[in-house]
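Repro:
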Amino acid sequence: MGEVRFVRMGFGAEAVEYLQAWEEQRRVHAARFADEIPDTVLLLEHPPVYTAGRRTAESERPLDGTPVIDVDRGGKITWHGPGQLVGYPIQKLPRPVDVVAHVRRLEEAMIRTCAEFGLETTRIEGRSGVWVLGDPVEQRPSLGGLSLDLDPRMTDEEFDPRLNGPEYAPSNAGQRREDRKLAQIGVRVSKGVTMHGFAMNINPDTTWFDRIIPCGIRDAGVTSLAAELGRDVTVAEVVPVIEKHLREVLEDAELRPRETQPAASV
């Protein structure tokens, strides 16, 4: 595919309000659909905001009524804010669109970025995004004096970690040695052109995630690049690295339409 253009919209004190960035996505999307511009990746930080994808359940939203912006992407509820690098790739794909392949390319770019900083990350089958694997279940510490056999998350489908103390909080998953998500992905494809994208936790206050059920996942948590490395890492340090790996992954990709099965003959 052709060259990818990067636009650094704003970071830190110049973080971009979510609705402003969403409007810019729509403008760039229309221009890309009309072939007026090349594939474009918007990179930015947001002020603190919760956004909910189309599959978000009411029970996963903040219990205290904190405002949530409902958006037209896939996935569920998440948080954006300072210390998190957000990327919106606006890319034209061949039809029928292979959304899974697009998601895998974004994951690959972030996995390579983490590796360059010295952190091994991976994918988990059935759960999009980039993950740090926890210890095997039998090696994890007990929770609140409970053995893993009595962990309510394993037996109660309606268990809500927000009501059961900090030991269950998503931000404490590292202390529990559980799987923890470092980067989230939620995309939309309209007219063969992608929107929305990824959010990579560099050095945010991850306790913001404790007010929701992040991505609808109750038995894992969240983390950041800085937390896993045990040292400070800034968004500014990561921006040129993610640009490099996105360029490699997206420009070198051999884009193919999604394979379809022929209709069965009657």
